[in-house]
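User: Please fill in residues for this 191-position structure.
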């Protein structure tokens, strides 16, 4: 099965080495990133297990600036349901390269494969997203502002609105009729 390992855990598998306790960032100064917080996910190409391992690694990190780095191993990772990145700030998700790490949508629905909701300063890159034969994917990646009319996020919590996200060194491929949008941006509840 797919596995996730913490690079900052102690040699004995116990407590992390050093102080990796998140602290509040100094918003007036330089961006703050806590010590080494990396999780590596090794895919096994079976759909649900790969998605669950990546989702678990994302959920492990909190909402602080520099909330973590997730390295996805080389190989093929089948993804059977959307991967949700919600209310994170500064999270990095990256493969080993576009020719090395491939995330294949094998889900029953139309996706998306990655759904960023109210996430800012995130990085997604160095991988390929493709669609399994017989499957369809409306959007490979959806960036949702997290700012829906009437929910108060627009007025009260500007730090949670999706901004300054980076998509870099990505290949998004699909046969005709299997992939309709590479990246879709949704703001204020409308596409």
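Assistant: Residues filled in for all 191 positions:
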């Amino acid at each position: 099965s797919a596995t996730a390992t913490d690079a900052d855990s102690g040699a004995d598998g116990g407590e992390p080495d050093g102080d990796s306790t998140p602290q509040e960032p100094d918003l007036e100064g330089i961006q703050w990133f806590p010590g080494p917080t990396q999780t590596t996910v090794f895919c096994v190409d079976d759909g649900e297990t790969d998605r669950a391992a990546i989702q678990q690694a994302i959920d492990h990190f909190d909402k602080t600036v520099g909330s973590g780095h997730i390295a996805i191993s080389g190989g093929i990772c089948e993804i059977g349901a959307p991967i949700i990145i919600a209310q994170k700030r500064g999270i990095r998700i990256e493969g080993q390269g576009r020719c090395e790490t491939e995330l294949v949508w094998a889900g029953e629905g139309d996706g998306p494969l990655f759904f960023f909701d109210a996430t800012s300063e995130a990085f997604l890159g160095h991988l390929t997203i493709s669609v399994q034969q017989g499957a369809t994917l409306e959007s490979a990646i959806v960036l949702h502002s997290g700012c829906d009319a009437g929910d108060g996020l627009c007025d009260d919590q500007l730090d949670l609105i999706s901004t300054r996200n980076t998509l870099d060194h990505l290949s998004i491929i699909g046969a005709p009729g299997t992939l309709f949008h590479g990246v879709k941006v949704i703001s204020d509840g409308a596409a």
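For context: The longest helix spans residues 48-60.
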